[in-house]
Specification:
Strand content: 15-25%
Helix content: 25-40%
Distance between the termini: 40 Å
CATH class of one domain: Alpha Beta
Strand order of the largest sheet: 1-2-5-4-13
CATH architecture of one domain: 2-Layer Sandwich
Bound molecules: siroheme, iron/sulfur cluster
Largest sheet: 5 strands, antiparallel
CATH topology of one domain: Sulfite Reductase Hemoprotein, domain 1
Structural class: alpha+beta
Radius of gyration: 23 Å
Shape: globular
Length: 586
Amino acid sequence: MSDNNKNQKLAANEGIKTRSNFLRGTIKESLADNTTGSMAEDDQQVTKFHGFYQQDDRDLRSERKAQKLEPLYSFMLRARVPGGVATPEQWLAVDKVADELTEYNSIRLTTRQTFQYHGILKPNVKPLMQALNTVELDSIAACGDVNRNVMCNPNPIASHIHQEVYQWSVKISEHLLPETRAFCDIWLDGEEYKSGVQKHTKEGHEPIYGPTYLPRKFKTAVAVPPHNDVDVYTNDMGFIAIIENDQLVGFNVTAGGGMGSTHGDHETYPRLASDLGFIKSEDTLKIAEGILVVQRNEGNRVDRKNARLKYTIDRMGVEAFRAAVEEYAGIKFEPAKPVTFTQQGDRYGWVEGVDGNHHLTLFIENGRIIDTDTHQFKTGLRLIAEKMLTIGQGDLRMTANQNLIIANIPTEHKSEIEGLAQAHGLMPRISKVRENTMACVALPTCALAMAEAERYMPTLVSKVDDIMAKYGLSDQEIVMRMTGCPNGCARPFAAEVGFVGKGPGKYNYYLGADGVGTRLNKLYMENVDEQTILTSLDSLLARYAKERNADEGFGDFVVRAGVLSATENRPVRGQNFHDGINVGQA
Ligand code: SRM
Ligand code: SF4
């Protein structure tokens, strides 16, 4: 244990992890208890490591309370899908499970390239785990104080490079999986996972994590420049592919990114990752393990608000952290290679890969796959996956921006796939601003939401679209993101325009990131309503239309025009980040 934690009362979760006996807790007993829809209190923490969270529908809370009923408990489950790649067989199973074992009949693509189900009743959790296992999917370590789903650029345009880089994301994910047999025992009655991920594991043996796992969640992304679709610098650990002469030679490694913060608490802050240096590909797993183990040893286990790797690095200093990783791994970092990122979001429509296959990126607003009166995303994607099976080719790739790529389609089947997408509303004409939006789930399922996000962002974007059109800016891209609280699940602090929920209908409003994910934005107005936001955007966009330089993004413009100063890339203790112009009602 680090000196940081000595002689101090550890956070309650540390006790829960210790008592859980390598993530077993009393999950089996909680599942068997049919007197309540809930899990026992400690188990509600332990189940996160198994990929699921207890929730209740907040829209129904007061009604249920008035009826003296317990909240309508159900579970959100998040799958582990490294790099976001799913086969058509997997997609069809995922689709069927949504109908048969969840109350919401929807699939929710997340900001970390996987999918979630909401509204799983307790008796359905185990059947759902087993159904996913039949198609080699699992939710091991999708949440909890462990390395979570590993992201990777999903677009296989330069197929051989993407395949190789993608394989690294799978290897990192599997190398850093917890080894406890609790997963097989609880969900598969002791059988092995069909994918083989638990094959060589031993009972009570966690060589990388130890019995109390990490102090806090830990996230990893692999980027392929010039695309920064995975927002690599917002991750605890990042690998930036270095390609020379059309070959992957290694990775620039970054550490200490994160978005989460708490309103008004300057000891918490978003941070972009620090560069550690370049490594050869063959050293990837050793370095990944080293970064994780240094965080395991040095991270704060007393205060969970100060426990992410970003705080450990700021406390230790980058040099000392790098040296500790080098010592563990027995590998020296070389100086980082130059890299340039040119875009943060996804590119929509068809692209042709070097191997002649075609890839269609679809905009899925806020990742919600559901059939409604206006569009039938769920049905359309099911038919596309069925078509892939009949043609014997193709896969579905979730992006880090809550979208989906229909990948590896041969030329002769392009038009059939496009026909299905068009017929089900999957290729709507939308503005450039909307294409670059994301909103987190927030209400009604997220227990931490202070304001709406997914259910409100589409309306706000329509109003912003009108302003853009008024100033002739409809072709201009702006990265705009919203979350229902400052935990930052849609990475709002890395957006050119960010909205972060403060209370019902009220948002903190951020400006000034660079549109490629290498500079954070800054608080511009605090606790403001829609009208204040639109009035402000109207006047800033009017200036932008007149005064911008050629190819200047909105985030760069507001900084150059002196609307606010640029945030330093790696703010220390939040100084720069929180010094916005506070004109809200606070
Ligand atoms: Fe998140 C907690 C949803 C990506 C930072 N996040 C939650 C919970 C589980 C709420 C809770 O703890 O009870 C949310 C569940 C809502 C629901 O009903 O589904 C939730 N987070 C999401 C998703 C689904 C948002 C989305 O709309 O796609 C994303 C799932 C990602 C995945 O597949 O693994 C999601 N969360 C993120 C990201 C973005 C990223 O990782 O790239 C962040 C910011 C990056 C970071 O981690 O710093 C993020 N989520 C948080 C935090 C703040 C962590 C911190 O350091 O303070 C919390 C709260 C916590 O951990 O205490 C949180
Ligand atoms: Fe919930 Fe906040 Fe994350 Fe949105 S940002 S999903 S409101 S925790």
